Amino acid sequence: MSDILLEIRNLSTYFETRSGVVKAVDGLDLTLRRNHTMCVVGESGSGKSMTASSILQILKRPGRIVSGEMIYHFRDGRTVDIARLDPNSKQMRAIRGKYISMIFQEPMTSMSPVHTIGSQISEMMLVHEDVSKAEAKARTIELLTRVRIPDAAARFSSYPFQLSGGMRQRAMIAMALACRPDLVIADEPTTALDVTTQANVLNLMREIQRESGISIMLITHDLGVVAEVADDVTVMYLGRTMEQANVFDLFNAPKHPYTRALLGSVPRLDLQRGERLTQIRGMVPNPFARPTGCPFVTRCPERRFGLCDRQEPDLYRLDGSTSRCFQHDPVHAAAWAQNDEVLA
Amino acid sequence: MTDVMQPPATAKTAESCLEVRNLKMHFGQSGGFFRQKTGVVKAVDGVDLTVADGETVGLVGESGCGKSTLGRAILRVYEPTSGEIRYRRRGAGDWIDLARASPKTMTDLRNDIRMIFQDPFTSLNARQTVLEAIGQPLFARGVARSEVRDRVAMIMGKVGLRPEFMPRYPHAFSGGERQRIVIARALVVEPHLVVADEAVSALDVSVRAQTLNLLQDLQDDFNLTYLFISHDLSVVKHVSDHVAVMYVGRIVEFAPSAEIFARPLHPYTASLIAAIPVSSPNLRGRPRAELTGEIPDPSKPPPGCQFHPRCAFATEACRKDVPPLRPMAGGRQVACHHAEELELAGIPA
Amino acid sequence: MTTELPSAVPETHPRTKGDTLPTVAARNSVADDIAESDAGTVVDVASQWQLMRWKFSRHKAAVVSLWIVAFIYFVGAFAEIIAPQDPNRTSGRHQYAPPMAIHFFAEDGSGFAPHVHDYSFETDPRTYRKTFVEDPEKVIPIALFVQGDTYHFWGLFEWNIHLIGPVEPRQPFYLLGTDRLGRDNISRIVHGTRVSMSIGLVGVAVSLVIGLILGGLSGYYGGRVDHAIQRTIEFLRSMPTIPLWMGLAAAIPLTWDPLAVYFMITVLLSLIGWTSLARETRGKVMSLKNEDFVTAARLDGVSEFRIITRQLLPAFMSHIIAVTTLAIPEMILAETALSFLGIGLRAPVVSWGVLLQEAQNVNTVATAPWLILPGVAVVIAVLALNFLGDGLRDAADPYSHN
């Protein structure tokens, strides 16, 4: 069994609108390891949610995958390129239900308000697996207990609106785990929750990941969440991977200027009152007005004149991580270091 | 409850400018065909809070704890049920009770006390230009258009908006820029006290840093006093001199920021601090108390200390008696029967 | 001939790109930093109306409907000119005459000579029923802008020019046939347009005033006022409308002149019509008054009157326009239904409903099917107004789904 679960190479997802093409995901590279938690971080407009929708092929019109591959490795060694599957095909439906499942930010919108939580979870099992109703119910109650919903047997017949936000998110997690998937994609699962509830839900996800050996792809804008649960981190900006690294490397020795800037812009508890935060100048560019050269060039504090605004850097492979910046390009690194005409 | 005045430990001036005393803000629930009263939501239920001139007081709590209602009650968006909101103008000696101020007095004071809203999308009228939005408080007071223009241009420069954008509509701006318009509208009348209700919560990470730095610059430039309402403890720690922790309509702890994070006195404060995500993976796995259970329904709060159903240290006394907010050493206040006995963990220094 | 100009241009601006990018300067405050980086931002500054137009023009059916509605109102406004003859002119010889066809070229091949053929009559020997047959021998030349029946145009002046008609006045010219009394069907439909389309407008205007005021009060003040108004609306809406109208219409004295009846009917229609408008208004006001931007205006010291007129009204005005457009077809249908039942407008007033009264029995419809054409006009007008309202409603909020 390969250590790799999902390999995304050069994935592009475009939205062709009347006003132009929005390149939501634009040449994304990302590798998910089996039994690990990958956090995808980025600001709004970075394409992190669209990446999730692309993997599950649940893009809303007019979005579509225009290029790239997403190689999914099954447990038995077979592989499939998800990007080549028809969104409505039987295979894709099987992948969506059985192998990859999703947790959304607001559970209320992804659960049926007219069915009980228990019936929604056991329905997933009945559809995708060969189990009897009684078995499904027993397993559902077991799952609800496992996500620490108190009095799970009674909660089986509760409706989503009868639960608090935190409980609903737990039920959502139980539903995502119903068919023992290999990968759970969680899109901002704790953003709508209070700090205390967030801490509980993150703990739970960490525990489940450790116990059941699933992979989690967690999409978030919150670096605190990343620091709490990630094994690997992908930093996205304007639809591209800027840096992918092990979480410790990323926090202790960030490679890309964007990662450095992001880390500096978060208020940390060890800062003194009033200490200034690193601020990234300007804002994420309009999707219709992408800069030429490096995507981050308009805001980068380390950009080099005549290089970063002309050419686009590749994703360079470093020791155990990747970075999309010329300072890590063997060809340009020397020139980059010498050129002190910083455009900051 | 006594009017215990605590001298602020780190305030730039020792004078206080806002004293909230035993403030209650109850909302009637009604239902049925005849709209009869069916219950009372005690959103704010006996709050005491002192804000010193020129400092930032952070107000934290989980959603539904009443922190936004408290902020809005201070601005008289709602009519307080009872209690006092004493406000003292800079340089003036006498206190004005906002809770009972006449509409005339209130109109005058609206130049002094301003609000920054959370959502930069809903708090700007899509049909007003930037000039009309920022200049609105001036126009409302009959200031001449040419003067409004000058003052709006000045404040736009201060918040980092180009004055040429004055004739544009809000939809032409990004979220961060809109929030700066909202900030400019609050500051154009040169206020004294600013209630910032989750002012940076809706913003992206990098824009949030810009805005936090900006708020700090503006505080220095205009000598502002902030009541900074937020659910995000790391942001509150970053900006505040004092922190007030709110739980189901009451203040449970009030202390200088550095001290409350280093050594919380109330178990609820401790669990809130424990729940803050770590800032680096190196800090993972520090022991922390997990807070279980849910925040109670404010229309049916539990008897005694409202936190007792979720508190690991609750005793018989906690289930029966409501702990008053009482003064502690070092200018701190806490509403816990066992504050002296508990050794609660804060953030390791 | 060669010119050196092209090569000279790039040389004069060798580093244009670098120059426009912000360069390092002594910077202390955040404000400078942010403002400077905004320099290159390109933002569109389309006004609200532009956005609404763009959004509306995307709704194809609505755009087509807009033209249809405009055409219908044009016809209504210039009914006297557009109608070939007086709608009340009877002709004993042409009862239930079928539609005539327009021929553009003379039969003898002498070229362009638009004309119609007069009828010759055949009487069925058994039933004695008169049937009309077009007689190619009897040519009636027609033309545009001909003199015909005189009329008072908008009550301003007397005129006799008609858009189309026979060159010789008072010759038979029935494009859509005639009715029981030999009155020209098309002239009657054209004149009916004015009454039917305007009764909608007047009715909706009355409903709008009542609906806006009561709905606005209900939403803005809430509490008891809201309770009272809402229960009234529920009561009115729970009443079966047709019997209610029948009762009220029966109370209109028969001796009243047609205009007074017309006015009464609009008032009766608005009596029910305001309720849905009031509900729409109430909902909108309720959601708007708690919006942050309204609270902000209040905190800015803006007076209540200005909040209502400057913040609330503009925010839902466009919405109200859309709702109004959707209310007009309801009014038209109600008028048609009432008049058809004989309790609405009565002859000599000409409206689509009154005209449809002629088509009340199956026998008539079988012998003169062209008499149901006013019904077609009603369908087209109602559909067009509905599509238009849909398009306006989508356009009303240009900031949604952008």
Automatic annotation (TrEMBL), chain A:
<dbReference type="InterPro" id="IPR017871">
    <property type="entry name" value="ABC_transporter-like_CS"/>
</dbReference>
<keyword id="KW-0813">Transport</keyword>
<keyword id="KW-1278">Translocase</keyword>
<keyword id="KW-0997">Cell inner membrane</keyword>
<keyword id="KW-0472">Membrane</keyword>
<dbReference type="InterPro" id="IPR027417">
    <property type="entry name" value="P-loop_NTPase"/>
</dbReference>
<dbReference type="InterPro" id="IPR003593">
    <property type="entry name" value="AAA+_ATPase"/>
</dbReference>
<dbReference type="InterPro" id="IPR013563">
    <property type="entry name" value="Oligopep_ABC_C"/>
</dbReference>
<feature type="domain" description="ABC transporter">
    <location>
        <begin position="6"/>
        <end position="263"/>
    </location>
</feature>
<comment type="similarity">
    <text>Belongs to the ABC transporter superfamily.</text>
</comment>
<dbReference type="GO" id="GO:0005524">
    <property type="term" value="F:ATP binding"/>
</dbReference>
<dbReference type="Pfam" id="PF00005">
    <property type="entry name" value="ABC_tran"/>
</dbReference>
<dbReference type="Pfam" id="PF08352">
    <property type="entry name" value="oligo_HPY"/>
</dbReference>
<keyword id="KW-0067">ATP-binding</keyword>
<dbReference type="InterPro" id="IPR050388">
    <property type="entry name" value="ABC_Ni/Peptide_Import"/>
</dbReference>
From TrEMBL, chain B:
<dbReference type="InterPro" id="IPR003439">
    <property type="entry name" value="ABC_transporter-like_ATP-bd"/>
</dbReference>
<protein>
    <submittedName>
        <fullName>ABC transporter ATP-binding protein</fullName>
    </submittedName>
</protein>
<keyword id="KW-0067">ATP-binding</keyword>
<dbReference type="InterPro" id="IPR013563">
    <property type="entry name" value="Oligopep_ABC_C"/>
</dbReference>
<dbReference type="InterPro" id="IPR050319">
    <property type="entry name" value="ABC_transp_ATP-bind"/>
</dbReference>
<dbReference type="InterPro" id="IPR027417">
    <property type="entry name" value="P-loop_NTPase"/>
</dbReference>
<dbReference type="Pfam" id="PF00005">
    <property type="entry name" value="ABC_tran"/>
</dbReference>
<feature type="domain" description="ABC transporter">
    <location>
        <begin position="18"/>
        <end position="273"/>
    </location>
</feature>
<dbReference type="InterPro" id="IPR003593">
    <property type="entry name" value="AAA+_ATPase"/>
</dbReference>
<dbReference type="GO" id="GO:0005524">
    <property type="term" value="F:ATP binding"/>
</dbReference>
<dbReference type="Pfam" id="PF08352">
    <property type="entry name" value="oligo_HPY"/>
</dbReference>
<dbReference type="InterPro" id="IPR017871">
    <property type="entry name" value="ABC_transporter-like_CS"/>
</dbReference>
<comment type="similarity">
    <text>Belongs to the ABC transporter superfamily.</text>
</comment>
<keyword id="KW-0813">Transport</keyword>
<keyword id="KW-0547">Nucleotide-binding</keyword>
TrEMBL record, chain C:
<feature type="region of interest" description="Disordered">
    <location>
        <begin position="1"/>
        <end position="21"/>
    </location>
</feature>
<keyword id="KW-0812">Transmembrane</keyword>
<dbReference type="Pfam" id="PF12911">
    <property type="entry name" value="OppC_N"/>
</dbReference>
<feature type="transmembrane region" description="Helical">
    <location>
        <begin position="199"/>
        <end position="223"/>
    </location>
</feature>
<feature type="transmembrane region" description="Helical">
    <location>
        <begin position="368"/>
        <end position="388"/>
    </location>
</feature>
<keyword id="KW-0813">Transport</keyword>
<dbReference type="InterPro" id="IPR025966">
    <property type="entry name" value="OppC_N"/>
</dbReference>
<feature type="transmembrane region" description="Helical">
    <location>
        <begin position="312"/>
        <end position="332"/>
    </location>
</feature>
<dbReference type="InterPro" id="IPR000515">
    <property type="entry name" value="MetI-like"/>
</dbReference>
<protein>
    <submittedName>
        <fullName>Peptide ABC transporter permease</fullName>
    </submittedName>
</protein>
<keyword id="KW-1133">Transmembrane helix</keyword>
<feature type="transmembrane region" description="Helical">
    <location>
        <begin position="260"/>
        <end position="278"/>
    </location>
</feature>
<keyword id="KW-0472">Membrane</keyword>
<comment type="similarity">
    <text>Belongs to the binding-protein-dependent transport system permease family.</text>
</comment>
<feature type="transmembrane region" description="Helical">
    <location>
        <begin position="235"/>
        <end position="254"/>
    </location>
</feature>
